[in-house]
Write a sequence for this structure.
């Protein structure tokens, strides 16, 4: 009985050992399988699917065949964070590391069609910007109003609204009873003066001679004050025909300019002082901007200004500053004088005004359109390094006045793109331009 129990116990122990050995073998087999699957997953992560995907030692850790041994990586690129065979070493990860273009080349045709222009930059001082709405108005120093000086009737019109007239050009013909009387008196005085002058002072007394001279001068001054020009008066007296004293005369333009207003009809009776026409030289206009007293204190006569009219910019300067506040708005009127080329701006038109303040800064002055935001958010300009070749240059913006910007980051004498910078930037983007210039 004891022998039987001993044998049973021995058999039981052998069975337990056998089961333990089987568990160990099974565990090791599972580990190998897991390692093989890990090797497959790792190979898939690198885009490589070989015919022997379960050879762990050859393809999982050794990497003799995939070139990683040259870089000393022993675990399928895990030390590289996955930047080994996914295309990152060949510079095609979208960031332009390696062979990305850092400039753009444009031929003459491209530059002309895209409107690309360049400029040589230079140092300049620029003040802070004072911004205000403005309204275009006539330059009062280049404007005249045509008015009669006696009660008159319009008998003929010689120019129309919008016509360009020259100085001395006939504008309108008037007829006046007062002018007729003055013309008659002038012709009579002229005849008397000729008579006494012809007789001489030996025959005519000094008193009569002086009286004739005075009468002539008074009559001449009267018709002149009523509106006749020197040329018209001379023409009237030259004939010596008293029947020409009809009271008809012409109002002429006192300056070269454009007929801005025309408020009458032929046959209308006009009172003295009534404005028949307004003639103005629109080549130079005023822009009236209303500033707060604090902003007005920061401006000086002659200060530079920029006027924005739609998408156009016009240079100007402060010509006048009012010293009395408007009772309603509590603002001061400042007049900016601009050169109105081709009469592009008209009186009454609303504009935006940017006046240079007295806080000056030194830097490189460039057009606003020459400075763009790069892909990384920094300001940049495009420098011409060779004819037709441009590359970006990061800059710092110091201040802005209208369409002018003060920057630093480029040296004086550098040639940059002043117009068409966006096109150049687009061409660089097409070529894989890297904003960091790596």
């Amino acid at each position: 009985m004891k022998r039987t129990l001993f044998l049973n116990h021995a058999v039981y122990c052998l069975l337990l050992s056998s089961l333990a050995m089987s568990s160990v073998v099974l565990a090791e087999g599972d580990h190998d399988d897991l390692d093989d699957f890990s090797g497959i997953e790792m190979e898939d992560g690198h885009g490589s699917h070989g015919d022997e995907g379960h050879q762990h030692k050859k393809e999982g850790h050794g990497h003799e065949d995939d070139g990683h041994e040259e870089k000393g990586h022993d675990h399928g690129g895990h030390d590289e964070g996955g930047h080994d065979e996914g295309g990152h070493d060949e510079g095609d990860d979208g960031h332009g590391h390696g062979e990305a273009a850092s400039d753009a080349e444009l031929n003459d045709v491209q530059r002309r069609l895209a409107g690309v222009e360049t400029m040589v930059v230079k140092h300049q001082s620029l003040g802070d910007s004072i911004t205000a709405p403005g309204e275009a108005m006539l330059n009062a120093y280049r404007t005249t109003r045509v008015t009669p000086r006696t009660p008159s009737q319009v008998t003929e019109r010689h120019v129309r609204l919008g016509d360009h007239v020259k100085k001395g050009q006939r504008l309108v013909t008037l007829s006046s009873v007062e002018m007729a009387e003055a013309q008659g008196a002038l012709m009579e005085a002229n005849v008397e003066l000729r008579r006494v002058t012809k007789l001489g002072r030996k025959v005519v007394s000094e008193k009569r001679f002086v009286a004739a001279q005075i009468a002539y001068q008074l009559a001449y001054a009267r018709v002149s004050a009523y509106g006749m020009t020197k040329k018209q008066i001379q023409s009237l007296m030259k004939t010596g025909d008293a029947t020409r004293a009809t009271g008809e005369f012409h109002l002429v333009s006192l300056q070269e300019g454009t007929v801005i207003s025309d408020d009458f009809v032929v046959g209308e009776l006009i009172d003295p002082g009534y404005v028949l026409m307004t003639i103005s030289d629109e080549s130079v206009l005023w822009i009236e901007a209303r500033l707060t007293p604090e902003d007005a204190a920061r401006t000086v006569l002659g200060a530079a200004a920029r006027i924005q009219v739609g998408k156009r910019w016009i240079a100007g300067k402060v010509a006048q500053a009012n010293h009395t506040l408007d009772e309603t708005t509590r603002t001061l009127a400042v007049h900016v004088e601009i050169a109105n080329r081709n009469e592009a701006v008209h009186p009454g038109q609303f504009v935006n005004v940017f006046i240079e303040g007295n806080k000056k800064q030194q830097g490189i002055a460039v057009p606003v359109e020459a400075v763009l935001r790069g892909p990384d958010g920094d300001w940049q300009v495009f420098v011409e390094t060779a004819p037709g070749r441009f590359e970006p240059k990061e800059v710092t913006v110091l201040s802005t006045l209208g369409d002018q910007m003060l920057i630093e980051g480029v040296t004086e004498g550098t040639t940059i793109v002043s117009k068409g910078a966006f096109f150049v930037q687009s061409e660089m983007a097409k070529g894989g331009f890297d904003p960091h210039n790596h």
